[in-house]
Amino acid sequence: MSGQFEATVDIDRPIDEVFAYLADGRNDPKFSPRVQRIERIPESPTAVGTIFRSTVKDAGMKTAREFRITAFEPPRSLRWAEVSKNIVTAAQGGYDLEPLPDGGTRVRIHNVLEGHGLGKLLVGFALSAARKDAPAFGRRIKAAVEAS
Asked: Is 49 helix (H, G, I), strand (E, B) or coil?
């Protein structure tokens, strides 16, 4: 079983600035409290093939995660796929950005969660929690980008 969650938020910053902030996955802990640490491999600007390796805490459990950048089209689109082996993974996800007439940026984040093994029974709970948190997640992204 798999399913998608998404959030859309308007950020009071120009599209190039928002894209640069989001493309550097090392900023994720600033808006995602579940991310405890993260590193970019290689340690060079983000591009297709870049890996972000992180430790996250979900439901009281720490897991190792690896995401590969699969599409990088500044300043409009960024895509990733989780390559780590966990019971619930983000099979694919991304950011879509569009400029707003007032100089701000509209950001849509989306992830497709997929269950593996026992995770096929748990993915529904993970999706429900992600969908419930999606509006707050968008607000945390907005606050972090605007504070940067």
From this structure: coil
